[in-house]
Design brief:
97 residues; alpha+beta; Arc Repressor Mutant, subunit A; three-stranded antiparallel β-sheet; 3 strands; 56% helix; elongated
Length: 97
């Protein structure tokens, strides 16, 4: 298997890469935090988090803080492993390139 084959297509998009980067460092972040740090629209962020959730790389917790709804995203163990593997493949590609 080549190094390119080890890259995960789920992380091809810069927004998904950004979401996973934030979550791997913090374990969790809410919608507002991700939106502000990544500088994306609500719809854009929602579609990318849904794609990562579908792959079981993140999980979603919905709650209320006071009377305001809050959506929190948590990286899963599966997500940590997949993202770490993707980053390792990127590093090998850069070193060998």
């Amino acid at each position: 298997m080549s190094i390119i084959d080890k890259l995960n297509k789920a992380f091809d998009h810069r927004i998904r890469l950004g979401i996973m980067s934030i979550l791997i460092v913090n374990d969790a972040a809410d919608f507002k935090q991700l939106k502000e740090e990544l500088g994306v629209t609500d719809g854009n962020l929602a579609s990318h988090t849904k794609a990562l959730e579908k792959e079981k790389y993140i999980r979603v917790e919905k709650s209320f803080i006071g009377r305001k709804p809050n959506t929190k995203y948590i990286i899963t163990q599966h997500g940590k492993e997949a993202f770490t593997s993707h980053i390792n493949a990127l590093e090998k590609l850069i070193k060998n390139g």
